[in-house]
Amino acid sequence: MKIIVLMKQVANKDAVLRIGADEKWINEGDIAQQTNESDGYALEEALRMKEAKGEGEVVVCSLGPQSAKTVIKDALVRGADRAIHVVVEDSKKLSPFQIATAISEAIREENADMVFSGLQSDDSSFGQTGVILAELLGIPHATLVIEIDRTKLEGNVRLKRELESGWYQWFTYKLPALLTIQSGISQIRYASLKGIMAAKKKEIRD
Questions:
Q1: Which of 86, 115, 140, 152 could form a disulfide with 178 if both were Cys (CB 3.0 to 4.6 A apart)?
Q2: Average pLDDT over residues 13-40
Q3: Segment holding 177, helix H or strand E
C-alpha cells in the first residue's frame, strides 16, 4: 500500500506576527516555521497504517519554498520513506485550486492507494486543497476523519467522520481515496536517533 501525505510549512504558533510591507501577508523574514499541526497527525496515521499492514510506502509531498525542506526532513526522520517537493517560492499567492493542481501533477503518476492531508492549514485555514485535489485525481474523498479501521484495507477503507452537532458516522470508501485528517486523531511520535540516521539516505525529489 502506498500512502501520500501532504504536508505544509507554516509560521510557528507562538511567533509574534507583523504585517508585511505590502499589507497583504505577514512578514516571514524573522519568523520560525513549523509543520502544519493537522498534517503532522496525517503523517502519523499514515505511518500507523503502514505498520499495521506490515508493508507499504509513505511518501510525503510538500508545496512551498526551499525552506519547506525542513518540514520534509522532519517527516523523513519520523518514518516517511521518501518525499516530493513542489518548489514554489511564493506559494501564498496561489489559490487552493492552483495549489491542488500543482500537487496533482506532481503525484498523479505515483498511483497511490491513499492520499492524506490535514483538515486545514494553520495559516489560511481554507480547508479546500484536499477536497479539490481529490476531484482533480478523480477519487473519492472524506473530510473530518477522526478514526480509521486499520484491520480492513483490502480495496476499501472504513473510517469514522465527525459530523455536525456532536454526531459521528462510519463510512466505507473504495480505494484509492483521499482523506483529510482531524487533529488529535492519535499521539504523534517523536523522532528517534535511528530515524535521524536513516533519513540522510532517503530521497527528496524536486
A1: 115
A2: 76
A3: strand 177-181
